[in-house]
Amino acid sequence: MTDKPEDFRSRLASIEHERTQLPAIDESMQVQSEALQAVIRDAIATNDGVIGFEHFMQMALYEPGLGYYASGLRKFGEQGDFITAPEISPLFGRCLAHFCKQALTAISADNILEFGAGSGRMAADILQELEAQNALPSAYFIMELSAELQQRQRQTLQASVPHLLERVKWLNTLPEPGFRGMVLGNELLDAMPVQRFRIEDSTIHALGVTWSEAEKQFVLQPMAADAALRQAVDHIQQTTAVTLPDDYESELSLAQGAWLASVAEFMDQGVVLLIDYGYGRPEYYHPQRNRGTLMCHFRHRAHDEPLRYIGLQDITAYVDFTAVAEAGNKQGMDLLGYGTQSGFLLENGLQDMMPDPEQVSQQALLAFAQQVKTLTMPGEMGERFKVMALGKGVEASLPGFSLQDQRGRL
Ligand SMILES: C[S@@+](CC[C@H](N)C(=O)[O-])C[C@H]1O[C@@H](n2cnc3c(N)ncnc32)[C@H](O)[C@@H]1O
To answer: 247: CA distance to ligand 1 center in Å?
Structure first.
């Protein structure tokens, strides 16, 4: 079962507990954060004293040199703030390779483009598996906003698959129209900035960010919702047939739809595969989920205070997969499948990847079992994470979505 609003609240309660125990930061981090705060305060000053939350989140995560993803901080893995599936196990990338092989064969193409490639682990695992299956793409492109992460990705690939490095190409701009192939994004959409909104007196307000001189910190401030936000919230209410009640707060992402539109522009034929934590719209905007899904990660502790640790922590929100499917449709893409991560991995070869007990140590077998559990169990990543495939000019049916088909929940 996917999270019910009450399960989500109990997770928030444990987050509340962790929030009081967040670790301290050292002096150099403090200096970096203060430099970013000064830039954000300038933006607030030039915007009549308040900026939209989306603007704040964009700066907190991506301000050149200072934002969370744009600075040299360690983000992924044990020493960072969170662990993503490719960091947990190479099995994840291997299953994705299985899917890529089928998809690329279906359209007779051989290009892969990964957006937001993190440490480069997934790219290395996919290439290694495709090589083993004699199905290497002629090019594996990476579109990465952060120069520091590009550097790390190159190091990971150099260490794991040095002989395949020449196939990997980092892009600084989107490809020219005419692209045929696979587009991949693991935990990409959740890292795109969101607008926050609040319903009060049956009216939609935006939640912005301002600087409080009295409190000497950033604080949230309601502001007038612009037409795009009002339309988007109205659309949510119309399509779920629910009137959101007063004191309801949540978030939505217009950036995700804009990103998909840019993909549709350069893609002539291909498949977009997106993996992320998220819900279909009726679950996402359930009236009881009245504080949204925004979450921050700092040193493996999750909490819900985006105005703390500015530039030092990840800020993220669940993905409204109904909105992603709608945005794809609008751009002429078909929904090829939507299901749980667990179903997707199992249908893409996970069962067959168990090492031969005769050939490996007991320890390796245990590690395999532990990784499979983390990737697929409902209480871990198995059901919280969803996989969506959108296609342009793709007729074939692709593996990954029949075991736990969730299209009915969109
Ligand atoms: C949560 S991390 C996930 C990293 C990696 N995919 C993984 O699974 O470990 C999100 C990544 O998305 C990148 N990102 C966000 N928006 C992007 C965009 N529009 N284009 C390319 N990368 C983007 C960020 O820079 C960051 O590297």
So the answer is: 32
